[in-house]
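Section 5: illustrative case.
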């Protein structure tokens, strides 16, 4: 009963995890608005372009994993991008069932603009926050990630099998 009472009194609005998630979502929404307004790109499109700028010729499945979407969700996005001349599909030379996705020259020309918008968004959301506070925030967030990953690895090791 005690645990239930504590849970009912837990204020998630001041939770670090909740605040991190809300801050990330807010930043992502602002980036999405700016990408649409300035470049006419949907969230999935500009994220695909950034992935393809870093990784040459991934499969649709690999792209989906990198931008955290379901593979089936990505299919119509890639279809539209092919139609608009932003990417091209090429059959995988080792496995003809898979397609590899590549940027076209048209999409390559948007990469710098996407990066500029991301930097503009950061500048907007960091307004009024000191460089020192930003550095401290990065350090704390990296520590939270490392601690969480460490505990996950301990649990996996102790159980002798992977935790999904």
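Designed sequence:
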């Amino acid at each position: 009963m005690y645990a239930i009472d504590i849970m009912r009194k837990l204020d998630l609005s001041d939770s670090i995890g909740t605040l991190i998630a809300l801050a990330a979502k807010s930043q992502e929404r602002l980036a999405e608005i700016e990408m649409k307004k300035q470049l006419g790109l949907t969230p999935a499109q500009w994220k695909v372009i950034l992935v393809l700028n870093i990784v040459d010729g991934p499969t649709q499945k690999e792209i989906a994993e990198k931008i955290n979407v379901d593979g089936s969700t990505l299919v119509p996005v890639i279809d539209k991008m092919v139609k608009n001349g932003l990417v091209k599909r090429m059959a995988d030379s080792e496995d003809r069932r898979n397609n590899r996705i590549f940027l076209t020259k048209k999409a390559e020309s948007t990469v710098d603009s996407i990066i500029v918008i991301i930097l503009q968004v950061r500048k907007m959301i960091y307004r009024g926050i000191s460089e020192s506070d930003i550095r401290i925030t990065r350090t704390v967030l990296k520590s939270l990630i490392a601690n969480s990953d460490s505990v996950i690895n301990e649990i996996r090791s102790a159980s002798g099998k992977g935790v999904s």
